[in-house]
Amino acid sequence: MPDAPAPLPPQDPSPQAAAAALAPAPGAALAAPARVVPLASGRSIEIAEEGAEERIQIRAAAGQLLVSIRLTDEGPVLSLSGASLEIAAAKTLSLSCDTLRIQAAQDAAVEVGGSLHERVRGSVVREAGRSARTTAREVMLEASPGGVEIRANDDVDIVGERVRLNSEDPPMPLSWEEFRARQALAGGPGQPSALGAGEDAAPSAPDDRTPRGAR
For 25, which DSSP code? Predict the structure, then answer.
């Protein structure tokens, strides 16, 4: 025959024992029930406390979370969710943080009525999935003390009124005599010209005595 089950320990039916069984463990904090304030539009405001943190939430009529404000020991935390969000400042809008992330699933546009100044203490990496274009009245690229490197898998086209490589400032000389005279002046008084070492150092001029840059 099977063994008889062990007898259960005697239970204390007193109300004090029942209250002790339902009491929380020492050090545990009871979370107060959230207070909900319904609004005429169907939305509602929910106020809750969780330990040392207070939370205020605004929900849509269907229950979606629209605005959440959490008051923590490190400061308030604000969360917004909606189809459209607008922030307008009459004078100044400042953002200050350790890390800034902006993500747009589709297009993004930045329009500045005045000047735009960017200062990056580290490196800058810009990647475009298709084309990239820069348009300005004047464009200047400077690398100091490093160099400039341009790479392309296809052709590189440079189109301009004059394409100068390590050349003098305009106006361009109209003849080889004017070119040699400029070189002599650049050498200074009593100094030999850059082409004075010999006629062999200068390129042979065409019959019309016009340098290649002025043709």
Answer: P
The pTM (predicted TM-score) of the whole model is: 0.50
CB 179 within 8 A of CB 196: no
Nearest alpha carbon to residue 34 among 18, 45, 23? 45
**Of 203, 213, 128, which is closest to residue 164 (Cα–Cα)?**
213
Q: Which two tokens stand for residue 174?
A: 């109209």
Q: Where are the alpha helices (DSSP H) in 163-212?
A: 176-187
pLDDT in tens, 25-79: 554 455 568 889 999 999 999 999 888 889 999 999 988 888 999 998 888 888 8
| Host H or E run for residue 77 | strand 75-80
Buried-state track 4-17, b at ≥16 Cβ within 10 A, e below 16: eeeeeeeeeeeeee
